[in-house]
Amino acid sequence: MTPTFSLAELAERIGGVLRGDGRAIVTGVADVGEAGSADITWITNPKYVEKLATSRAAAVLVPTDFGPTPMPAILCPRVDRSVAKLLAAFAPAIAKPETGIHPTAVVHHSARVAADASVGPRVVVEDGASIGPRSILRAGVYVGSQTIIGEDCLLWPGVVIRERCTVGNRVIIHPNAVIGSDGLGFYFDGGRHEKIPHIGGVIIGDDAEIGACVCIDRAKFGNTLVGQGSKIDNFVQIAHNVRLGEHCVLASHTGLAGSVRTGRYCVFGGRAGALDNVTIGDGARIAANSMTAKDVPAGQTVSGFPAQEHRKELRVQASLRRLPEVAAQLRELLARVERLEASKHDHP
To answer: What does CATH list as the number for 5-90?
Structure first.
């Protein structure tokens, strides 16, 4: 059944201030250009206000200092937070599995599964593993020997967590992520690559979220660490012995090579990367498509390949865009020099 709210109810629910008639009924959320007469939309920047003139939306979420709107508005101190609450209000319910162990699951007799945990169809839990209270393992999850899953975790189908890994509390791991695979470690001997054993583990802190198809390698020794509250997008690679700080955000296709160290609150744009043993300070930002080859100080924004201070990289890019013009000027100057050189031989 589709949730239905009046504007007045929505304003109270998301903590905003209603401007206009609160009796209109809202049944969905949509982009400003696609919203129908029963949808609510949002705008965060006044430069997009002209889009509201042609929008069919029943109402709009805007910042508290936003000017007039052609439809009722809910004024919000932080639109991003209010939009999150709005989407939660309209989110379709996801059926919660029954507690207990599904008949098709394979759970080793020495594993410990909390009575109120849910272990779904064809899940495998190996010897000595532990599944914490209220955690949910969806179909086809694999939990290796002596691995610990904390409380209130959600592991979506196909997640693989190998042996001797630790997952904190309230962690979400999306489909087909692999935690604890061997890192890329070989030495060359006798004309072939010989494998270096990876005998460490992976520790994932509380409230982390791991996207679909993410790979987090186990350490050669010790542990690869993902800090509390960090959020990792789909298709990210974290190599052996990386220490990712607390509350970091990694966008899709980011790659961190072995033994990278980051501080807290670091942000990596899509397809960003860092070479092995690089240290990245608290609050640093690595722009999309950038490769960090040396340490980044705390709070600095870097971009480019290899990455450098962002403003310097912008000047480099501006200069590169002028290369065709500069090349044409250089050709003209060379031609003039050649003419001058030729002309000096024409007169004694």
So the answer is: 3.40.1390.10
Based on the residue annotation, tell me whether 240 is a catalytic residue of this protein. yes
Q: 156-200, pLDDT tens digit by residue?
A: 999 999 999 999 999 999 999 999 999 999 999 999 999 999 999
φ, ψ at 148 (rounded to 5°): -115, 125
When the candidates are 1.10.3210.10, 1.10.3370.10, 2.160.10.10, 3.30.450.40, the CATH number that belongs to 100-311 is: 2.160.10.10
Look up residue 86 and give its two tokens: 């709005």
The answer to whether 106 and 88 are in contact (CB under 8 A) is no
- Candidates 299, 215, 309, 302; CA nearest to 264 is 299
pLDDT digits (tens, 9 = 90+) for 295-346: 999 999 999 988 888 888 888 888 888 888 888 888 988 888 888 888 876 6
Q: Which residue out of 240, 253, 345, 347 is catalytically annotated?
A: 240
Q: What is the pTM of this model?
A: 0.88
